Amino acid sequence: MKKLLLIMFLFQSVCGLSQTNIFIATDGNDSSGDGSMANPYKTIRKGCDQASPGDTVMVRAGTYKNSDYDDGDIWTGTYVTRIIIHGTADKYITIQPYDTEEVIIKFDGVYGFLIQEASYIRIKGFIFEGVADEISQQDADNAWGLYKTESGEVRDLEAEMKIDINDPSLIETTKNKPTTSNVTKPILYNGRALVANKSHHIEFLENTIRNVPSAAIRAQRCDYITISRNIIYNNTYWTTQGVGAITISEATVTPEGDTFTGVKIIISENTVYGNENRLISWNPAKSFIHFEIDEGTGIFLTRNNNTYTHGEMLIANNLSYRNGASGIVCHFTDDVVIEHNTVFDNGTSNHGYPGGIGVNSANNVKILSNISYSKTNKWAMGILAEPVTNLVLDANIIFNNSGSINVIRETPENQLTSRSGWTKIDPLFSDVVNADFKLMSTSSAIDNASSQSNQTKDYFGKIRDDSPDIGAIEYGVFSTDHHAAASVVVFPNPANDIIQIKGTSIQEASVSIYDIRGRKHTNFKRLGANKIDVSKLASGLYFLKLNSFVYKVFKN
């Protein structure tokens, strides 16, 4: 009997360790490869198709492109990979770069990765790069009204409407447009990086997404989505669809029969900045165009309340700054908690007044312990449109430097300003020029978070103390001497090859560099007394530690 039990134990142990690493490399072969490190597959799709629950698809260093990349066709373009596989609740399938190797998903097609009708999938550690930086404003303007009919005829809406899209007198006007149902827009200007559709239990972790013409991350008709610790910048410029950088749309309870009513969709600890809509959007299904840029939000929940019958969404510990419209918007979405976010200087390209945290036609929304600092001509918090019911605001700091409009946006039906739940005061960030949103020692945000907030960790993943602070970053995470830290300037930021240090000498200083996962990197060089060569670092967010002070640095 003992021998039988031992054999069963050994069998179960071997089965428990049977998960496989499947390797992909740019010089691999989908036909003759076997997915081993010595004989890898060539395409990510091939590796994913071979994966079983618990497996990890390891992608070796290099750049992976859609098969029709740079073919000169603005109308068509496929994805780099389409993922239609299933892990299990205790055995996710993970797709990630091997070790610390840099993997770039470069695309000019419809998607970087499309996760479709899949489940229990984790996408981690990739760099997604679109072609937005290769498109000029003039190119995008010229393509603004182009569409293709079902018969394949190419037409130009701008010519049909007899307008000039750059005519300033059009702004804030509304004009009828021709019928354009079932038409196709040029894919080159509307590509999206990381998209989940009709899927559940999907995790997007620690990816960098940049220069994508349309949305960076979009989950549509999905459930159990986690979007965390991603760096998302300079996206959404050239689409006429009207999108946000991170978007949850038409969320649907999945799998069928699921009854859990708690938090199922999580957006946390992301860095979202510089994402703008630079074109007026138009909807083919509508009979008019309103000539105003009103999209380009950093984090956007939209059109969920008719499809998401139960389950909550959480937006927490994010930095959302210098985006085109608002930092965070809850639009036609119920049962949401927005807490401990730092929202700064948004509204960079929109024509209206939104620039902070906004709610539109929603029920049961809690906005707790956030800092929302808007431009002087934008509001920091407000209701975009009624009805908004069961709205709870508590312990928020809002500010727009005594600007030309109210810092709070209200509607007559709601009278938001008659409620408590915020303080109008400068939160006193350490260095907004270099996007350092740590709190100064005299900030009113310190120790004043809402008792209703449930975040035990901050943006950096550090434990919050017993009296947590308002905003994404807990005071004193790295240094107790903020005056000394503020005297040192690290620039340029983002950096390409060289980081310069002003205010101290690094010749004798203790210098360390860590990535967002907390791993220490040694592939940098000191150049004299005040320069560091970081050209060999992969693109992404790093933490540069000089003695006891830590500075956040973005590497292009």
List the helices and strands and how they pair.
Layout: H1 2-16, E1 21-24, H2 44-49, E2 56-59, E3 62-65, E4 81-83, E5 93-97, E6 103-106, E7 111-116, E8 119-124, E9 127-129, H3 137-143, E10 146-148, E11 154-156, H4 157-161, E12 174-176, E13 192-197, E14 200-205, E15 208-210, E16 217-220, E17 223-228, E18 231-233, E19 246-249, E20 263-268, E21 271-273, E22 288-290, E23 299-302, E24 312-316, E25 319-321, E26 328-331, E27 336-339, E28 342-344, E29 354-368, E30 371-373, E31 379-394, E32 396-399, E33 408-409, E34 422-424, E35 429-431, E36 436-439, H5 482-486, E37 489-491, E38 498-502, E39 511-515, E40 520-521, E41 525-526, E42 531-533, E43 540-546, E44 549-555
Parallel strand pairs: 1-2, 2-5, 3-6, 4-7, 5-8, 6-9, 7-13, 8-14, 9-15, 13-16, 14-17, 15-18, 16-19, 17-20, 18-21, 19-23, 20-24, 21-25, 23-26, 24-27, 25-28, 26-29, 27-29, 28-30, 29-31, 30-32, 31-33, 32-34
Antiparallel strand pairs: 10-11, 12-22, 35-36, 37-38, 38-42, 39-40, 39-43, 41-42, 43-44
Descriptive report:
This protein has 556 residues and is mainly β. The chain has three domains: 1-91, so0334 like fold; 130-477; 487-555, Immunoglobulin-like (Sandwich), CATH 2.60.40. Helices cover 7% and strands 36% of the residues. The chain has five helices and 44 strands. The chain has a 19-stranded parallel β-sheet that branches. Strand 1 (21-24), helix 2 (44-49) and strand 2 (56-59) form a beta-alpha-beta unit. The radius of gyration is 24 Å and the shape is globular. The model is unreliable at 6-17 and 479-486 (pLDDT under 50).
